């Protein structure tokens, strides 16, 4: 059987803390660790350790703040599309409420002053009807009643010299009328007018869609340079 030769084991060379020459003089000496400190040195060490601890704590807080800001920014970016939808729904609801209020006010005004639209129409058409020999106004029975005198008074005020006839037509909407002056005519139907206003308003809202005024004043978007933990 072959003999096993053990591998060489490297030994660390022994060294001395203090080396003397033959005459006894110190050639070299390792610095010995300090075993006692003055009060000033202890205070300096304490302050240095405290500063180091505060620096590490502040760095940890800054990292957690950056992480929280990144989470908040991501949540805000996800919420903005839904927020835009909610804002659009709110605008549509506000418009519908305004229309409902306007219809109620207009209906009350027409009930209080039913002849005012006819008078206003005759005054507005003064130049168009000045050469017409005759005006024919058709209206529902309730509006036509007592309208002859009002029209003649208004015609005299605007200088219209022709004759005016009022005819009651069944089936017309309340407060609706048509003023025929031969070369043309003018009609007023409060229900149809309200529907046209509502259609125009909803068309404008639909065209605006989710691209109305910005939800964030001065910008409209979330900044993309939000600090992240990696930065």
Order of helices and strands: EEHHHEHHEEEH
Main sheet properties: 4 strands, mixed
- Topology, number of strands: 6
Strand order of the largest sheet: 4-3-5-6
The helix fraction, in percent, is 40-55%
Mean of residue pLDDT values: 79
Number of helices: 6
Distance between the termini: 66 Å
- Low-confidence stretches are 219-231
Characterise the protein shown here.
- This protein has 231 residues and is an alpha+beta fold.
- The chain is built from six helices and six strands.
- The strands form two sheets. A four-stranded mixed beta sheet has the order 4-3-5-6. The chain has a two-stranded antiparallel sheet with strand order 1-2.
- The model is unreliable at 219-231 (pLDDT under 50).
Short description:
With 231 residues, the chain is α+β, with helices and mostly antiparallel strands.
For this entry, give a set of tags:
four-stranded mixed sheet, single chain, 231 residues, two-stranded antiparallel sheet, alpha+beta, 6 helices, disordered C terminus
Blueprint (SSEs and pairs):
Elements: E1 18-20, E2 26-29, H1 39-112, H2 116-124, H3 126-129, E3 134-139, H4 141-144, H5 147-158, E4 163-168, E5 177-180, E6 185-188, H6 190-208
Parallel strand pairs: 3-4
Antiparallel strand pairs: 1-2, 3-5, 5-6
Helix pairs in contact: 1-6, 2-5
